[in-house]
Amino acid sequence: MKKLSKHITLLIFFLSVISMMSCAGDEIKPEVDLTLEEENMPVQESWDSKVIFTEEGKLQGVLYSDHMREYKEPKEKLLDGVKIIFYNKEGKPTSQLTAKKGKIDELTQDMYAIDSVVAINDSSHVKLETDELMWRKKDEKIVTDKFVRITSDEEIIEGYGFESDQQIKNYVIRNVTYQTITQKKKNAK
After folding, report:
1. CA distance linking residue 182 with residue 154, whole number of Å
2. Portion of the chain with pLDDT greater than 90, in percent
3. What is the CATH number of the domain that holds 71?
4. In angstroms, rounded to a whole number, what is the distance separating the alpha carbons of residues 45 and 23?
5. Domain tally, the chain
6. How far, in Å, CA of 162 to CA of 105, rounded?
7. Can you give the pTM of this predicted structure?
8. Domain limits for position 146
9. Is residue 26 part of a domain?
10. Which residues in 34-67 are b (16+ Cβ under 10 Å) and which e?
């Protein structure tokens, strides 16, 4: 009986070792973080993007972005490293805008430029600087209620509240806080 008991003990020991060896081969599964909500995640993401805007087949603008994230709710695209080139009805570039960040409202197609915004008219070289700007698709106007600085060959104007066509040719500053004639204009007289 002692011999049989030794064999059973040995068999149980052997089975235990085999069982432990098979468990050692199991991979450890990582924990899954379920705290992230699906609605906060982008549905699409891209780098070095190019988006072309047209109306009735005519080129209106080309947007370049270093990083673009598209969200389902709210329906928008968030951009990092933004450059937009606007075109006239003849398809020629008229102005360009750069900013550190941007946003496109997918429902209205309005575009927002945020942080270190600079817009320049290609022909007149009028330069607009501000911290935040919106391009409204419905009337193709550039607007902001923030501080703006306009620099041209003739003058420098600063103030709050701005509206312009997308070529930055016809513009209005609502509350002018500073205005001066530039040296180029003085020398021309």
Report:
1. 5
2. 47
3. 2.60.450.10
4. 40
5. 1
6. 20
7. 0.72
8. 41-188
9. no
10. eeeeeeeeeeeeeeeeebebeeeeebbbbbbbee
**The two three-digit tokens of residue 67, written as one number:** 């990083």
Geometric angle at alpha carbon 22, from 19 and 27, rounded to 5°: 135
Q: Could you give the CA distance from residue 167 to residue 150 in angstroms, rounded to a whole number?
A: 13
Would you state the structure tokens that stand for residue 52, as one six-digit string?
A: 């072309």
Residue 168: its pLDDT value, please? 85
Residue 25 forms part of a structural domain: no
Rounded distance between C-alpha atoms, residue 112 and residue 146, angstroms: 13
Backbone φ and ψ for 103, nearest 5 degrees, come out as: -150, 145
Q: Exposure of 90 by Cβ count < 10 A (0-12 exposed, 13-18 middle, 19+ buried)? A: exposed
> Across residues 81-96, what is the average pLDDT?
90
Asked whether 141 and 60 are in contact (CB, 8 A), the reply is: no
State pLDDT tens for residues 172-187: 999 999 999 987 655 5
Cα Rg for the chain, rounded, in angstroms?
31
Angle at alpha carbon of residue 158, lines to 152 and 163, rounded to 5°: 80
Give the pLDDT confidence of 52-73 residue by residue, as tens digits. Answer: 888 888 888 899 999 999 998 8
